[in-house]
Give the backbone structure.
Amino acid sequence: MMKEKTLHELAKEYPVKTYKELTVIKEDLKLKKETGACITSGMKRDRDATDKMKNRTQEDRGPLDLTRRVEELQDSVKELDKSLAIALEINESHQRYNGKLQTRVSELEEDNKKLAHQVEDLKLNGVRKAGL
């Protein structure tokens, strides 16, 4: 049996939600726990709860909420920019390394062809010396 989540645990899980929204989530979780296992009705109840929550969050949004959201999004953009810069740097180093590997492979292929010709020449010379 799963224990009921506290508001503190829900706040950790949904850091952007307000106290009012967290209490609604807690009530919804309690309803889910109490109701039966009918999948269709559970899905409908979940969809209805999600729709209600979306409507509430849209109604409750004030200038402070929007300012906080903008700041969070700006922080997120900064983190994504850092991740992109790191990925581009890694990509560039991999491309350089792959270029070096490709030139090395080309050199090895040429050496392999030369060695194959030398081996054939040695075989032919061996056959000639044997008098065939």
